[in-house]
Amino acid sequence: MVSKRRLSKSEDKESLTEDASKTRKQPLSKKTKKSHIANEVEENDSIFVKLLKVSGIILKTGESQNQLAVDQIAFQKKLFQTLRRHPSYPKIIEEFVSGLESYIEDEDSFRNCLLSCERLQDEEASMGASYSKSLIKLLLGIDILQPAIIKTLFEKLPEYFFENKNSDEINIPRLIVSQLKWLDRVVDGKDLTTKIMQLISIAPENLQHDIITSLPEILGDSQHADVGKELSDLLIENTSLTVPILDVLSSLRLDPNFLLKVRQLVMDKLSSIRLEDLPVIIKFILHSITAVDALEVISELREKLDLQHCVLPSRLQASQVKLKSKGRASSSGNQESSGQSCIILLFDVIKSAIRYEKTISEAWIKAIENTASVSEHKVFDLVMLFIIYSTNTQTKKYIERVLRNKIRSGCIQEQLLQSTFSVHYLVLKDMCSSILSLAQSLLHSLDQSIISFGSLLYKYAFKFFDTYCQQEVVGALVTHICSGNEAEVDTALDVLLELVVLNPSAMMMNAVFVKGILDYLDNISPQQIRKLFYVLSTLAFSKQNEASSHIQDDMHLVIRKQLSSTVFKYKLIGIIGAVTMAGIMAADRSESPSLTQERANLSDEQCTQVTSLLQLVHSCSEQSPQASALYYDEFANLIQHEKLDPKALEWVGHTICNDFQDAFVVDSCVVPEGDFPFPVKALYGLEEYDTQDGIAINLLPLLFSQDFAKDGGPVTSQESGQKLVSPLCLAPYFRLLRLCVERQHNGNLEEIDGLLDCPIFLTDLEPGEKLESMSAKERSFMCSLIFLTLNWFREIVNAFCQETSPEMKGKVLTRLKHIVELQIILEKYLAVTPDYVPPLGNFDVETLDITPHTVTAISAKIRKKGKIERKQKTDGSKTSSSDTLSEEKNSECDPTPSHRGQLNKEFTGKEEKTSLLLHNSHAFFRELDIEVFSILHCGLVTKFILDTEMHTEATEVVQLGPPELLFLLEDLSQKLESMLTPPIARRVPFLKNKGSRNIGFSHLQQRSAQEIVHCVFQLLTPMCNHLENIHNYFQCLAAENHGVVDGPAVKVQEYHIMSSCYQRLLQIFHGLFAWSGFSQPENQNLLYSALHVLSSRLKQGEHSQPLEELLSQSFHYLQNFHQSIPSFQCALYLIRLLMVILEKSTASTQNKEKIASLARQFLCRVWPSGDKEKSNISNDQLHALLCIYLEHTDSILKAIEEIAGVGVPELINSPKDASSSTFPTLTRHTFVVFFRVMMAELEKTVKKIEPGTAADSQQIHEEKLLYWNMAVRDFSILINLIKVFDSHPVLHVCLKYGRLFVEAFLKQCMPLLDFSFRKHREDVLSLLETFQLDTRLLHHLCGHSKIHQDTRLTQHVPLLKKTLELLVCRVKAMLTLNNCREAFWLGNLKNRDLQGEEIKSQNSQESTADESEDDMSSQASKSKATEVSLQNPPESGIDGCILLIVLSWWSRTLPTYVYCQMLLCPFPFPP
């Protein structure tokens, strides 16, 4: 036991005196051993020396160590006994101490007494420890000597205040203080404490620091409170000692309230503390946190702590330069910055605290979550979220939820994330795996903003972290690409594209991972394949990366394999990959500053590689029209978006594009001859004079030969020896030709402008009466002919839309008019050709990954199904109101309005049928370029008609008519929805194909959303012009017809077209301003410019107007259009557009009232009816507008009471097909929508009321009680409407939201009644009386559901009964709290139906109960409901009772109900 104790003490001493003993022990011992015999022993006649010698210590002179001849414990014991047994005790102690004082007057002797003693060789060999205590330490271990020795030391210490180290580099003051540490026993702790604090007050600062930090090792627990108080006073007096004092206070056992005061004192000084001191201070603050005040302390801490500005910019910049120069391989050089080192140490302290204290981590997350303002979020917040995410696995889901909410609300933006990584990359580097795990989780989200944030995590992790982390980033991105989730794949590929540009050399090191994606090409879309091959080609053919031949070889192998495949899908992948790779190989690098002229130009060898690759693609695709068309489209996209080397572009012009004329262009004067089914004519020519050198497009003969080749089999084409030219390639081939000419001649298309004028060899397309007499094959032939003609015209418009001359503009508008006319003709053919499958207009994988036969079958099924559904809808419109209402059951469970994309399909009249057919054929039309919409700038354009001598013969005025305007607006609206409405991330189901969302937008998808928004912003002014013109049209129309917009003088077709244009314009504006990209700082200028356009329409203002002013003026401008809104759909879009503008404003209270007022006006307006009254207003649209009205109105309860108390009674008293006079949109057909929205909003409103507490003031209690009275009154009005409107959807809504309202009453209202019952007894009883009638009706509704055995209703009954049972218990608790429990009474309650009539079957079952007790019906009859009344004694003065109804025993949940009513008499109810 003695040996173990000695060993532990020596180890403690070893660690505590490292500054002195470690420095001194080795040289001293060596020197001593060398001169052991030569050194003299202290010879002194003093009692001090004699007693020590007797006890076992030999004092040495000079620099020699004192020698310990016996064990340390034995020495202390013998000396103690010697002193006690001495005849002159206790005077001997004074003599002994006096001798010590005399001895240590010599500096060398004093030093020897403070240093450890040397054991003699025989003793050292026999003992386990090689280290012994100093003489002073041994003497302090003797109780009778300790006080005197301590006094001597404290008297000696001031001599060395200003001598930090002696000649031997030994710090004497620190050595003296170390003697007091870890004493086995302190005889007089209070005296020691007093002496130490006095010493601290006079000591120099460096010694103060040493003494203070040694206090926990010197003092016992009993002195901690006194020392703590003294140190807190010292903390106020001397701020330079803050760090050692707080370090010590963290180690002392102190009262929590005292620590709270000290912590608050430190928190007040936090902003002025040096960075070097922060780790210790933060450690103290976190150590003193309790569960009660954790949130408050952390919130204050994160507000006052801003580490972003702690590191000096010069240091930060230097460290970043050093980081880049070292390739991020090591962080040792960066830690030379003291600021960064302190921050790393600080975060280590925080990590330690949150790892072991769950309270701290939860409070920190909560503090960040409670921060609402964008400006209040700091870099420190993000770092803390990352640290907690990596430290505590239990909080990962919580942190992810907080981050998602912050990202959605725009509180955490890219700039903040970038600053976080740039400032604290050394801290975050250690959490690389956790950050990548978080990014992976965010990429699984459905929200585009969250996905973007996850991609930024990958990007910055690659940019700022070392090589190992970069490898992990690339590996994670490759995993996302191979996951099959479309949104993940797109995002991961976009990140790879950025990384290739950001750091190509680092990406080259990880190219082998990216190359592995080539094995997983089956499940990625064409646009994703383009991105992948772009990344790989950039790495393989970059001039900076010469050692990349292995990637080139692998890519060539994969592309050749895909091109030679007989499976059509793989051939298309090969085409896309080859063209993308050729674009990188032949890219024009003449403008690259990093390359010399020789390296920038394309060498002959490289040019040969490019041309051979393209010739390979051409030869592999020429046997398939679809593959050839895709090749032309891909090549055209390449030329459009990439700047090719002049050599490569010249080869394209001489080889591919020159074949167009041979394939498709013929002389217009030579009519083709052949056995055609229809007479061939040159139609749609824009030149009316006859010339010998005119040209025409040879469409009908080519289409006929293709059909003939199909029927005759492949032998015919093989025997002819001629290459089969498919008319399918006409539009793609022309696109390639146009873009090649445009690039070669800097946008000049004079070489091919004859194709704009030239006619097409067709036949008479107008069907007339011959349509019914045509065979199915002839009708299909005519449909294909029209589709191909439409696609030709679409590409013509794409090509020449940006021409500036009036003549060319007129021709383009004429072609646009031809497109609209041909679509009308096409509709007539499609209506009688249901099984027809059009020729493809878009040739990417998403339309060609299934065989043509499957396409035919599926398309036919879709058309048949659509036809049947439309027929059923037409028949269903003749059904009764109740039947129609019952069909809405499917939409009952989701009260939210449909997505705005669904509103795109809403049209009226004949236009609906047209749109349905065209919508089915959308994928077969060529895509319009975004530049086409520059036509919207056109007003009146003059077109000159010239004679043969080029003289003006006539002048014709061509303008953009309503049908052409609608055509352009519909296409633009679809494009904006596709690009600006983010796709919902959805995993591809097993054995299912991807959706067709992007079909027809492949060219658009190759542009960024920012580019699209910028292009559309250029159209804002002409669109405002069109919007105002349409507004004026409907204003004039209303004036001419005396306010009746659908009067007899209105042209129906024109009215519908103008109305649709109005709707599309509002839809485009809404899609534009609702774009989520405006929340990003780099897009703020775009928003400012757009708002300036709108506000300038109202009044010409300055360009430097503030954003709030622009928002206000834009809101006012758009609000002015409400008077001319022609349809309910337009009204909804206008409201939503105004709401989007409103969301961007900070001062929105006043405008919020305008939204509510406008919504009410639309609800109170009589809208023109379509062909079928019931289809005039969609239920989803009405639901959305009604929700907007109730959410924005000042008082929801008053609004509900107005509709239910005024509008509905008007509807009840009106004829069957009429509507409410106050709310014309409220009809018997739309009542269920009104009822559902009012019930949902009422329940949502009462949930927001805070439950009452005893601490609330009397006024607050009264206000809340009044509010609940109004809410219950509204609930009562709504519930009683089921007596009149008893259809299934209405009852379903009543059961669902009735239960939710009762639950809200339980949680929010009952605590209020607990405290209000005594002071507002009459009000509480009135409230319960009204609520009793409502719950009784709910009970009747439950009985009604069971009697009718309606499973759609009975599924809600158990939950409702359970809730009402809880209400009984809660009311009983309230009465008990108010000393009224004794008034319960029991009775029976009869079952009744919705009208209050007693259920007859119950009586008959009761009468036969005794005769057939075993019969199930009789068992049910015995289950009579019972009533329990709560009645106070008359003398109590309370004139109310609560009726408790316990339902029958055959109900599984045995629920109970509560009712309240005023007593009419003091007697109990009869049994």
Explain what you see:
The N terminus and C terminus are likely disordered. By secondary structure, the chain is mainly alpha-helical. The longest helix has 29 residues. It contains 65 helices and 13 strands. A 4-stranded antiparallel β-sheet has the order 10-11-12-13. A 3-stranded mixed β-sheet has the order 1-2-3.
Short description:
It is built from 65 helices and 13 strands. The chain has 1471 residues and is mainly alpha-helical.
Summarize the amount of helix as a percent range: 55-70%
Low-confidence stretches: 1-38, 311-336, 595-599, 712-722, 848-913, 984-995, 1171-1175, 1402-1471
Q: Sheet bearing the most strands, described?
A: 4 strands, antiparallel
Structural class: mainly alpha
Number of strands: 13
Shape designation: flat
Distance between the termini: 87 Å
Portion in beta strands? under 5%
Strand order of the largest sheet: 10-11-12-13
Query: Radius of gyration, Cα only, in angstroms?
Result: 45 Å
Number of helices: 65
Overall pLDDT: 77
Organism: Pan troglodytes
Subcellular location: Nucleus
Protein name: FANCD2 isoform 1
GO cellular component, one term: nucleus
What layout of secondary structure does this protein have?
Elements: H1 2-16, H2 18-34, H3 47-55, E1 57-58, E2 67-68, H4 72-85, H5 91-103, H6 107-114, E3 118-119, H7 121-126, H8 135-140, H9 146-156, H10 172-178, H11 189-202, H12 205-218, H13 224-237, H14 242-249, H15 256-268, H16 278-287, H17 294-304, H18 313-325, H19 338-356, H20 358-370, H21 379-391, H22 396-408, H23 414-429, H24 432-443, H25 448-464, H26 467-481, H27 486-502, H28 504-509, H29 511-515, H30 526-541, H31 549-563, H32 568-585, H33 597-600, H34 604-621, H35 625-641, H36 646-655, H37 659-664, E4 665-667, E5 681-683, E6 695-697, H38 699-712, H39 714-720, H40 730-744, H41 754-757, E7 760-762, H42 776-800, H43 806-831, H44 845-848, H45 852-876, H46 881-886, H47 910-920, E8 940-946, E9 952-959, H48 962-980, H49 1009-1017, H50 1020-1040, H51 1052-1073, H52 1084-1098, H53 1107-1119, H54 1128-1143, H55 1149-1163, H56 1179-1192, H57 1196-1212, H58 1231-1247, H59 1258-1280, H60 1288-1316, H61 1321-1348, H62 1351-1354, H63 1357-1377, E10 1384-1389, H64 1400-1407, H65 1416-1421, E11 1425-1431, E12 1440-1446, E13 1456-1462
Parallel strand pairs: 2-3
Antiparallel strand pairs: 1-2, 4-6, 5-7, 8-9, 10-11, 11-12, 12-13
